[in-house]
Amino acid sequence: MNLISMDNRRQSDARQVYRFFPKDPRFAIFALVLLIVSAFVVRRPGGMLCLLVYVLLLHSLSGASAGSIWKRSKKILLFALLAVVLNAVLVSGEPLVTVSGRQIVSKEGFSRGIYFFMQIFVLYHSTVLFVLFTSQEAVAQGISALIKPLAPKLANKMAFYAFVSIGFLPLFFEEFERIATLQRFRGGGLQGGPLQKLRGTRLLIVPLFLSAIQRSGQLAMVVELRGLRDAAGELLELGRPSIRDCVFIGVTLTVVAFCVVVLSGG
Questions:
Q1: In-domain check, residue 118
Q2: In the predicted model, is pLDDT for residue 17 greater than 60?
Q3: Were both Cys, which of 32, 115, 203, 256 would link to 38 (CB 3.0–4.6 Å)?
């Protein structure tokens, strides 16, 4: 539970340096979905580069420093570089790098790898931006407001499940750290070569999911006993959106349309 309070304080501090990201959760959810969909619709590196620059600019306008952006980017940098290497080597096309007359890297493969590299960062940083500046209460409010016009009876349940799921994540990571520490003491941690790390991961998965199932069952029982599920919808009302949020969505739609239509020829 300490992790949840720490996470709430972190999100509160992040919202205090709010600059441009929407406060209305409906607009935040819509912006996230729009950026994710556009990352798959844009088909050319130029359009993807424009999306990436826009997402990084949102981070900067929202108060994030260059150091914090780089620190988050390092977490997926190896995976993104692997996508570049695999595409450059495996995709056939006009030779870009040859050794002894044999093609090693193709221009088409390298271009495609750069495209996937930027796509990964667009998806990752869009999600990070949403999580950093949107609390779990706001996510539940936004989901309830978006679903209620289509399915009023389902809206409160979906919002409540989203609220509980997001709150459950800190507990999940806390349990992962606890089990990983125990496995390291037993000689089965995530250290050593790739094969040893793979075996260590296998030893972590089973107890982690058993513990997660047990905790989720306990949480569901507490929720039912307190009658929170049926009463949650009464607290999920949102007011009218601000002009700033409308401007944000307008700018985001303009950037996405420019990337899709102009830079990608779509």
A1: yes
A2: no
A3: 256
